[in-house]
UniProtKB/TrEMBL annotation:
Domain Blue (type 1) copper: 30-138
InterPro entries: BlueCu_1, BlueCu_1_BS, Cu-binding_ET, Cupredoxin
Name of this protein: Blue (Type 1) copper domain protein
Domain of life: Bacteria
Organism whose genome encodes this protein: Pedobacter heparinus (strain ATCC 13125 / DSM 2366 / CIP 104194 / JCM 7457 / NBRC 12017 / NCIMB 9290 / NRRL B-14731 / HIM 762-3)
The keyword Transmembrane is assigned to this record: no
Glycoprotein among keywords: no
Amino acid sequence: MLFFFLQAMQLMAQGNDGVTEVTLKVMPGLQFDVVRFTVKPGALVKLSFTNTDDMSHNLLITKPGKRLAVVNAALQLEEKGPAMNYIPKSSDVLWSVPILSPEQTKSLSFKAPLQAGAYPYVCTYPGHGFVMYGVMYVNAEGKMPELKNDPNIPPARQEDKLADAGKHDMHHAHQQEMPKADHPYATVPPYLYRIFMEDASPAAIAVSLPQNLSYCWDAGVCRLRYAWKGGFVDNTALWKGHADATAKIIGTIFYRDKTTYPLRVGDPDAIPVTEYKGYRLVEKYPEFHYTLNGIDVYELILPKEDGKGLVRKFRIPDANKEVWFAANLHDEAVTYEASAGNWDHEKLRLNPQQAREFTLIMTSYPLVYSRKK
């Protein structure tokens, strides 16, 4: 306690001398006006955050690499969230500003970490944390990655000349008009949101593909839920913090998985135990990694070149038993072409060698015969 008291007295005594001052505001569309800045290790920092938006926001600074963990922890607060300002009790949270209503301002004064690194800051209000974030770089040289290659800021801000603190007019940055679209920034498929979706667990991932195709992949149960053609998703209700809100699909669903579970290992009638391991980007497309009864599975979903369906590429490198893929052939207006294996009624049967890498091409009848291109 004495240490923290003396540290606070030191900050007060120094006043503005030698203090790095940072001002953050909110741009329309769930974006901080400044998405990155630098401070020196051990520097005294005063961060002022003004909510210049029409909805509530908070601000948390986390340990390096812990932004998503903190965002997910905030979501798990559920009904306790409002009382806790959606700030989870976690050692990954270093400093925080509680929920601010529109036009409110609050400041943080702290001593920058002594360890160099990229320290994310993020709004963890429900639905915001996956798109509303930035990064505080701590290093003695004041260096930051080249903007277009910075992995710690939202992808669409990598071409934003207004992104860096101290290099532009902040008032102008705040007044900049954002695209009036279903997303807070310009987007080019493929890209994804971790977001609440209908008919899926809270761990849903919505992925936008080229050819105006999209799909919902459920990380909670490790399966493709459904796919649609048209636009992507409207997240307005989520971003405004509406209780029990879900993303609204823009388009028409052409495929929905109605099986009890599509992939089986060994016994074609036994539902496997699944565990989500994350994903990596393969030329910007997410390849999902999960396990079935402890066996690693990798699934990459691509658009058909003609825009009439999906191409699903599976890798099960350590397959040592037969693998089965179940489909609702009688119930879906979708045809399946498999690169390996044989169909046994409504299940594709693959031996261990075939299961190590195979592709399923799913073509939608409604899309093939649709007059819309």
